[in-house]
Amino acid sequence: MGQGQDDDTRYLWIDGDRSAQHLLFAIGQGGTGASVWLEVQSPRGAEVALVAVRLPGRENRLSEPLLHTVEDNARDVAATITDLARGRAVSFVGVCFGAVVAYECSRQLHYRGVHPERLIVVDARFGPSDDLTAEAETLSDDEFSQYARDIGVWPDWVWEDPEFVAMLARQLRADIAAHTTYQWPASDAPVAGHLAVMTGSRVSAAEAKAWSPAGEHLTIAEGTADLGAQLLRSPAEFGAKLAALFTANVTANVTAPR
Question: What is the arithmetic mean of pLDDT over 11-20?
Fold first, then answer.
C-alpha cells in the first residue's frame, strides 16, 4: 500500500500491508498528529502494518475538542483500535507523551480482552515529570513558548517556524496538562507481552528500568539522541532504530510496573 492513506479521521495508514495480521499503532510526542509518522517505514515490511493514531483536536479531527487527560485520550485510541484490529495482533510505539497514552491504552485494552504484544516506549519516563506544569494552558503565548523551549519539548528549530508553532502549540498545551495530571497506576495488570524502551536525551537507561522494576521482559536500547527531534527531522534514521528494537526477542506476561 502507499504511504499516508487516510480513510478515517481517527488514524492514518503509514506503511505495510493493510491485511497484515499485526498492527503497530504509533502515537507521537506532545502537540503532534498522525502525519509526523508519514516517512517512517514499517519495522517488518509488509507483514506488520504501521498505523498512526490521530488524537482529537488535530489534523483531520481539528473540529473535535481536545482531550485534557491521558485517560480520555487512551479511551479514544482504544475505541479506534478495538474496531480496526479485531482478530489481529496489536502493538504500540509512543514518543514521550505518546508513550504515556500508549501505556494507558494498553492497560485499558487488556480489560477489553485485547492483549498488546509489544509496547515500545520512546524517550519517556515512567512516573510524574518534574519539568512539566499543569498550568501550561494558562500561560501567555510568550510565556508558554519560553517554558516549552526551556524543557525541550520540541527542538529549537521548531520554534523558529511561526506557522508550525501556531499550528501545534494549542495541542501541545493540552498534552502537557494531560501528562501532568495523569494518575500513574499501581497495578499488576499485564500491559503487553514485551516492554521495550528507547532511551535518548530525556531519559537515561537507569530511568528506563522503572517501566519494569524487576527487569522481566524488558529490552532497553540505549542512546543519547533527541529522539523526538529525530522523528521530526530524520524519520528514516528513527525508523531504523524502531525496526531494530521491534525485532528484539519477545516473551509473554509482562506485568505493569508498580
Answer: 93
Domain count, the chain: 1
* Rounded Cα distance, 28 and 93, in Å: 8
pTM over 0.85: yes
CATH number at residue 61: 3.40.50.1820
Cα–Cα distance, 258 to 256 (Å, whole number): 6
Tens digits of residue pLDDT in 151-206:
776 777 777 777 777 777 788 888 988 888 898 886 555 688 888 999 988 888 88
Contact 48, 56 (CB under 8 A): no
